[in-house]
From TrEMBL, chain B:
The gene is phoU. It comes from Ahrensia kielensis. This is Phosphate-specific transport system accessory protein PhoU. Plays a role in the regulation of phosphate uptake. NCBIfam families: phoU_full (TIGR02135). SUPFAM superfamilies: PhoU-like. PANTHER family: PHOSPHATE-SPECIFIC TRANSPORT SYSTEM ACCESSORY PROTEIN PHOU. It holds the Pfam family PhoU. Residues 21-109, 125-209 form the PhoU domain. It is found in: Cytoplasm. Belongs to the PhoU family. It comes from the Bacteria. Keywords: Cytoplasm, Phosphate transport, Transport.
Length: 259, 235
């Protein structure tokens, strides 16, 4: 069924993950493994906790005061909530692309070089130039912007901006890329380009993507996790989820019978 | 019970396909019964009516294809819906083929009825067709009720049809050997018998499609239905 013949390595794992916003519990104890060099899609109705769970994976939730995370989350077996973990380094290893393209109000060039600079990945201008080209090529944007690198990133089209954000994410050589509805603001062509890109990125990176498009989840991911009201309903091979899911809640959701 | 779709038009479109299959199924059953009745009673008018009636199955299949393609484009069905649309496309094509088989029998009625012994020789076909019709009916009931517990038993009974077809084959060969003037009619009847045997195969296809639609898994029972007459020899 799966195109992976051998069992892939677990890249990130959650065990008994609970998330609270103040007194309100948003994630009710979830165990979920994300495999290396696979795309894992998180699906489920609005408010079920997909973004919340995704943000646990690089501790983006730390930035929300009232948010408390319990349970164990690991990257290559290491507890990422360990007090000794350097969160900045963690976020370099686990990058993120958001729903709305959010380039910095700076040049295309600086959008890419910001991360490598603060993480000390480049020693010289020449190093940075290499990173910029490599990242933009990786995001399939190089040909379109190579002659306007000093123009502001905000001047690009929405689809280009999103690929710029992907380039920015890969510039720091992450191991995992988290994407929260990365195509929801894009037209079908830009969406197709990003999906194609996800397929290519998968050869090097582990990807977790939140999407409301069932077709997108079916197209880009190898595994799909279905969330509902803070619970993990099921996780399985994407092919199985979309042709013959085990759980009724999954079936109702993906076939448009919810509520 | 499966919940209704949030989008009611989607629900209606799925219902349309289900009803259309049921309608085509009923029609196919009727065509089998009438074509064999025409054959065994030498009723040429009835045969003509059956031939004309086949159009309705052709139309039905075309309609299901069109509606299913449109539904896939507009709704992108998933999971059980996807399997159902897929099964409907397959089943309608099997039903259309069954119609062709019945039409093929009806077309031979005038030749067979012209011959003095024709109607008598055709008698064996009646029983064969009863088995095939019963099988088809049960398969369509499984489709209608979405219950596939009996599917394996029904498919296994295809062996009975095959066995009877083989014995009918021998019987018709015997008539041919007895008197060469029987050859033309018996050859027509052989084709008729073969058509009925094929109807059993299509019923098996429908059973498999229904099973997949309901269970999401392939029915892995080995298909017993196989024409064994290639082994029949004259001695
Ligand atoms: N910053 C916050 N403060 C308080 N509650 C929040 C916060 N962010 C999310 N929540 C609550 O946590 C629950 C899960 O929200 P989350 O954003 O993870 O859902 P989601 O599955 O990503 O939904 P959507 O598909 O709409 O993006 C919701 O009930 C939401 O209201
Ligand atoms: Mg969200």
């Amino acid at each position: 069924m799966n195109d992976e013949s051998k069992t892939p390595k677990v890249k990130m794992a959650g065990k008994g993950v609970e998330v609270f916003y103040g007194a309100k519990q948003a994630i009710n104890g979830i165990d979920l493994e994300v495999y290396e060099r696979q795309v894992t899609a998180l699906i489920g109705p609005s408010g079920c906790g997909k973004s919340t769970y995704l943000r646990c994976l690089n501790r983006m939730n730390d930035t929300i005061d009232i948010c408390k995370v319990k349970g164990l989350l690991t990257l290559d077996g290491e507890d990422i909530y360990d007090p000794n973990i350097d969160v900045v380094e963690l976020r370099a290893r686990v990058g993120m692309v958001f729903q709305k393209p959010n380039p910095f109000p700076k040049s295309i060039y600086e959008n890419i070089t910001y991360g490598p600079r603060i993480h000390g990945l480049a020693k010289s201008k020449a190093d940075l130039d290499v990173i910029v080209e490599k990242s933009l090529r990786g995001a399939g944007l190089w040909e379109e912007v190579k002659d306007r690198l000093l123009e502001p990133g905000t001047g690009l089209s929405g689809g280009q901006q999103q690929r710029l954000c992907i380039a920015r994410a890969i510039a720091v050589q992450p191991e995992v890329i988290l994407m929260d509805e990365p195509c929801s603001a894009l037209d079908p062509i830009a969406t197709a380009i990003v999906e194609e890109l996800i397929g290519e990125l998968r050869e090097q990176y582990t990807i977790v993507i939140v999407t409301h498009s069932m077709q997108q989840a079916a197209r880009v991911s190898q595994r799909t996790a279905m969330f509902h009201l803070g619970d993990l309903v099921e996780v399985d091979d994407t092919e199985t989820i979309f042709t013959n899911p085990s759980e009724k809640r999954t079936q109702d959701y993906i076939t448009g019978r919810f509520g | 019970m499966i919940k209704q779709h949030t989008v009611s038009a989607f629900e209606d479109e799925m219902q349309f396909l289900t009803h259309k299959i049921a309608e085509m199924g009923g029609h196919a059953e009727k065509m089998i019964g009438q074509s064999v009745k025409a054959l065994t009673t030498g009723d040429v008018d009835l045969a003509r009516a059956v031939i004309k009636d086949d159009m309705r199955l052709d139309e039905g299949q075309r309609e299901i294809d069109d509606k299913a393609v449109l539904l896939i484009a507009q709704r992108q069905p998933m999971a059980n819906d996807l399997r159902e649309v897929f099964a409907n496309i397959r089943i309608s094509s099997d039903l259309e083929r069954i119609g062709d088989m019945a039409k093929g029998i009806a077309k031979r009625v005038s030749s067979v009825s012209e011959y003095s012994h024709g109607v008598k020789f055709a008698r064996g076909i009646e029983h064969l067709s009863e088995l095939a019709s019963a099988q088809l009916k049960e398969v369509l009931d499984c489709y209608g009720t979405r219950s596939v517990d009996e599917v394996n038993n029904i498919i296994e009974r295809d062996e009975e049809i095959d066995a009877m077809y083989t014995s009918l084959f021998r019987e018709l060969l015997t008539y041919m050997m007895e008197d060469p003037r029987n050859i033309t009619t018996c050859t027509h009847l052989l084709f008729c018998a073969k058509n009925i045997e094929r109807i059993g195969d299509h019923a098996t296809n429908i059973a498999e499609a229904t099973y997949y639609m309901v269970k999401g898994q392939k029915l892995d029972a080995a298909r017993p239905n196989e024409d064994k007459t290639h082994k029949v020899s004259l001695d």
